[in-house]
Amino acid sequence: MNIRFRGTLPPRWYAATCLFFLVGVTLTAQEKVSLVGSGSNVPSPLYLLWSDAFNKANSTVQVRYVSMSTVQGIELVSKGTGDFGAGEIPLTEEQMRGGKATLIQIPTVIVGLVPVYNLPGKPQLRFSGKVLSQIFLGNIRNWHDAQIAKMNPGVTLPDLAITIVHRTGGKGSNYIFTEFLSKSDPAWQSKIGKSASPSWPLGQEANRGEDMIEKVAATSGAIGYVEAAFARHSALGYGEVENPAGRFVAATPASLTASCAAMENTIREDFRVSMVDAPGRDSFPIASFTWLYVPVTGLAPERFRALKSYVEWALTDGQEIAKGQGYAILPRPVAEKALARVKAIQ
Q1: Is pTM beyond 0.85 here?
Q2: How far apart are CA 101 and CA 124, in angstroms?
Q3: Spans of the chain, pLDDT less than 70
């Protein structure tokens, strides 16, 4: 079947149409189930790998993931459209219990946001939260600024205007990044605050992580922020960030795991926790779980069993795939706690 769209419909319409089309598709054999989830772009490279590996190993359950935004993923699964959501914003009590379906959130891996920039020579730079806040507020406008130079001794910084690139609204990456800026700078907290859809004072928009990389790469002097996996696979420079211990740390599986380990004793039964500015000398400060938002009511029994098998797989075999791709997997105690929560669902 060939489908052609004419006109200039917005990208969100195409994504939603794709989701509704996929949700309506159940494999013709009675014993087969096709699951569709939607949400954050942050883990989409991993989730696409997971879907491919899971689908090859299972003849009766097939999984598709549609990259949209965290907010859209929550909205759709709350309305019963789609089998699961995904993102980096912890669910509120109302979101867990106030929609068409009762939801739980299950962490899958740990993600980290890094500042990415396009400068001649691709220097390795260091940033504090205060400096990043002042850049994204528009108060630091040139790479040769004394505040940037102070934390990068020995680096030749160009006399070059800074161009801001930020994500569009509804993104989990906005939520994590603005939480970090809010904790780092009272000026950011009072003027912008923590939000998935902040009122940016200036800058160009980028819808997806891929778009962020492309737009920063297209403009000399540009700066943005993106999940570390996107940055590692780009030609852009990406910075170390100062943590609460006063150390400049790169986003690596080890430093992201350290952020999680530092907060492990505070992780609640519903897995709501913030890892932003986690204590510890080795912790990367812009870290978060990425969660699956899983309905525990409202699904037909066969779909629920299929979804449960996929989430259990993500917390076991899926962790090995994530580790092999350079993601920070869940520490064993957290993974075991999450797996026990899923197995207990009736």
Answers
A1: yes
A2: 47
A3: 1-30
Q: Which fold has domain 112-266?
A: D-Maltodextrin-Binding Protein; domain 2 (3.40.190)
Spell 247-256 as b/e; 16+ CB within 10 A means b.
Answer: ebbbbbbebb
pLDDT per residue as tens digits for the range 40-97: 999 999 999 999 999 999 999 999 999 999 999 999 999 988 899 999 999 999 999 9
- Report how far apart, in Å, the C-alpha atoms of 219 and of each of 163, 232, 233, 294 are: 8, 19, 18, 40
CATH superfamily of 34-111+288-343: Periplasmic binding protein-like II (3.40.190.10)
Q: Give the residue ranges of DSSP H helices in the chain.
A: 11-23, 44-57, 70-78, 93-97, 129-137, 146-150, 172-184, 186-191, 209-218, 228-232, 253-263, 301-314, 317-324, 332-343
Q: Dump the DSSP string for 152-220.
A: STT----S-B-EEEEEPTT-HHHHHHHHHHHHH-HHHHHHT-S-SS---SS-EEESSHHHHHHHHHHST
**Amino acid identity, position 159:** D
Indicate if 112-266 has the same CATH topology as 34-111+288-343.
yes
Q: Are 249 and 282 in contact (CB under 8 A)?
A: yes
Task: Classify residue 51 as exposed, middle or buried by CB count within 10 Å of its CB (0-12, 13-18, 19+).
Answer: middle
